[in-house]
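Researcher: Here's a chain I'd like modeled. Treat it as a single chain, no partners, no ligands.
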Amino acid sequence: MFGHSASKANCAISAAKDRTCIVWDYLEGTVLHTYLLSDSPLCLTLDPADRAAYAGYEDGSIQFLDFYKQLSLLHPLYDPVQRSTPTQPPPSDRWHLPETSSSPALSLQVSYDSTSLLSGHQNGKVQTWNIARGKYNVQLADFTNPVTNLFMLPPTGFPHPPTPNLKLHYVVKPRYESSLDSSRNNGVIPSNYTFTAQFTSDLPIPDPPAHYSDLDDALAHPSFPAHMLEEGIAELTGPTHASSSSSSEFDSLKQANEHLKSQLDDALRKQREARAKVLSLEEERFQRAEDEAVKRARKKRRRIREMEGEERRRKEVMGEVVDVGGKGKEDGDGDGDVGMEEDGEGLSSDTDEFSSD
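Model: Modeled as a single isolated chain. Structure tokens:
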């Protein structure tokens, strides 16, 4: 049983008495997938879109084989991981007839909309199956002889069926090396394809419009009339005479343009003022931060001097020698006092506030 595709990816299915159903790539002669059935099938058919297969058994039941039931990032039939692993359909995918109507299924056919399945049986009955629900529907016909073949007529009644008016002769693809060049191929179709085709019939002429003008007639003519070309050239080269309506429209557009320009100037002025205000606020904030830092430094130096004064008074009370002039210290303590005093005097001399102290 061959598939319905016209491409190179078309497939075929076959069944054997060993209870297997195999899907083939008949162009390459390779096995795509193997299904392990619960019984030997007597007939096979494919879905119109080649998405599933159906097998008929001796007891009249139908086996449903879903090609897309296996989860895969690739096409399930062309996935190399699943290709080597046979699949056994679950019992729920086997649809049974009522016990009173059981008879071997000899032929199968799927409707064009893939909603119904017809099965012909040994007892001459034609049964219908609901594919969406996966179960038996009703009996369609009853013949006196076994039904060994079924054929679904193509749908008719479509208005104005499209007829191809273009015949493709050949397509020349770009060179393989150029398609591998990443600097020239950015994921788009290369531009150096050669497509050759031929029109098989005349192109359809559109219906004339309701108000057919001279210009429409000239556009449908093989060439423009000479008088129309002369009038057009004279109109382009001659002086322009604007009407009163066009002049008024021009004046209104000019006024609107001036109004928009004034609005733009106001917006730019407000933007400059806002920017200047932001810069001024930033400068004030920075100046306040610097003043606070200077005040903290002055307070720290004042505190150091107060601590040094308290230390000298403590030593005087304790009877320790304090060298005010920096001569002769006891046990090295005076060295640290002198250093602190000198640092305090140096700090106080930096500003007028401490010099007054």
